[in-house]
Design brief:
The protein starts with a helix and ends with a helix. Mean pLDDT is 91; it is low at 1-29. Strands 1-6-5-4-2-3 form a six-stranded mixed beta sheet, with helices on both faces. Strands 7-8-9 form a three-stranded mixed beta sheet. The chain has one domain (38-265): Rossmann fold, CATH 3.40.50.1110. By secondary structure, it is α/β, with parallel strands linked by helices. Helices cover 34% and strands 13% of the residues. The longest helix is centred in the N-terminal third of the chain and has 27 residues, at 2-28. It has helices spanning 2-28, 103-111, 141-151, 168-172, 184-198, 221-239, 253-260, 304-320; strands spanning 50-52, 62-67, 114-117, 160-165, 207-212, 246-251, 273-276, 294-298, 301-302. The structure holds 2-acetamido-2-deoxy-beta-D-glucopyranose (4 copies). The site of one 2-acetamido-2-deoxy-beta-D-glucopyranose has 3 residues, from loops.
């Protein structure tokens, strides 16, 4: 009995100590935050962050998003997404390939805008460029856009921001592209064509946010040629008086290089780990200790903490990189 009482006291004290230790370790580990600034440039120069005429974010009441797993909330018809919450052991928060809200949801929240999400996990720009791959029932980006044009949920076009974040899947599959990786520039032209199509009857879209992160911290001649082609064609469109549109170009390379390639390194962002919290997207059984300070959720796909600073970065580009 006596021994029992003692052990309860000791246990209570230990509990108290460990609670304090947890509190103080949370205080010393700062939350994840941006440790890089936008790389603002000029449309006539090499690819860089640009705001070519987009209004302040709060002026948009609707955000229409096209993209891949980074931007997909698992429903791809513009309807409201499921809540971004985990229900273990399922590692996909409401069908997202991450553990919380997506970057574009954070952006919509910052704008106080309604999100209409058409992005699809596993999407590439144009299936026709991959004769040897069967993509099953995953629509490509061009189909996302056609589906949107077909339904075209009502919104005032001046108050709508169109988000396009593609390229990572195409870069990953570049060796499967008809005629090889140099044909990535054809895909850049497809993407520009879709912007001009959205800008035309019947949608008349005016405001575009084009996002790139093709190599996720790696780069190559073929990948850079894709990005340069995209950027140079945006410059040409901006000089063509036939088209009335505003756009921003955001290159997440600055974040990915900053975290993964040593300058300033992942610790400066408040991460404790530059890797992934889960080794795959099958289950949460081997979840890491510190998911709130880990760069990726599964390999190659950002954690919710990273999605949060991605939205911050976009806001900094819009505010700082005007021309
Ligand atoms: C943004 O919205 C505010 C408030 O509605 C308005 O006064 C302002 O003119 C708008 N700015 C632009 C650039 O359209
Ligand atoms: C959108 O897709 C979801 C899931 O497939 C479905 O439940 C919903 O009815 C669809 N909404 C529209 C407007 O088609
Ligand atoms: C956000 O929008 C809603 C309705 O569209 C409005 O009631 C609310 O005041 C807005 N909040 C902010 C912070 O602008
Ligand atoms: C996302 O796509 C990948 C590869 O295409 C697939 O393995 C995975 O199961 C998909 N996840 C969800 C939640 O759809």
């Amino acid at each position: 009995m006596f021994v029992f009482a003692i052990s309860i006291i000791v246990f209570a004290q230990l509990g108290c100590i460990s609670a304090k230790a947890i509190t103080s370790s949370r205080q010393v580990t700062s939350d994840v935050h941006l440790a890089v600034s936008p790389n603002c440039g000029s449309l006539s120069g090499p690819p860089a962050d640009i705001n070519n005429g987009l209004k302040p974010l709060s002026n948009y009441s609707t955000i229409v998003a096209f993209g891949d797993s980074y931007t997909s909330g698992s429903i791809f018809n513009g309807s409201a997404l499921p809540p971004p919450v985990l229900s273990p052991p399922n590692p996909n928060a409401g069908g997202r390939i991450t553990n919380g809200p997506l970057w574009v949801e954070n952006l919509a929240a910052a704008a106080n805008a309604t999100l209409q999400d058409w992005a699809v996990n596993g999407s590439v720009i144009d299936h026709n460029m991959y004769p040897s791959i069967n993509f099953g029932d995953i629509p490509d980006y061009l189909t996302q856009v056609q589906n949107y044009i077909g339904v075209r949920p009502s919104s005032v076009v001046d108050d709508t921001l169109y988000v396009i974040f593609m390229g990572m899947g195409d870069y990953e599959l570049r060796n499967e592209i008809y005629q090889g990786p140099q044909s990535l520039t054809t895909l850049a032209s497809d993407l520009i064509y879709s912007i001009l199509e959205l800008n035309s009857n019947p949608v008349f879209a005016k405001n575009f946010l084009i996002v790139d992160n093709y190599g996720r911290g790696t780069e190559s001649t073929a990948g850079d040629a894709y990005k340069e082609s995209l950027f140079n064609q945006l410059y040409e469109v901006s000089n063509n008086l036939d088209y009335d549109l505003s756009f921003a170009f955001v290159d997440f390379k600055t974040i990915w290089d900053g975290v993964l390639n040593g300058s300033p390194g992942y610790e400066a962002f408040g991460y404790t780990d530059a890797g992934a919290c889960l080794s795959n997207d099958n289950s949460m059984n081997a979840e890491c200790d510190d998911p709130d300070h880990t760069f990726y959720w599964i390999p190659g796909n950002p954690s919710a903490a990273t999605h949060s600073i991605m939205a911050d970065y976009v806001q900094e580009v819009l505010a700082q990189c005007g021309s």
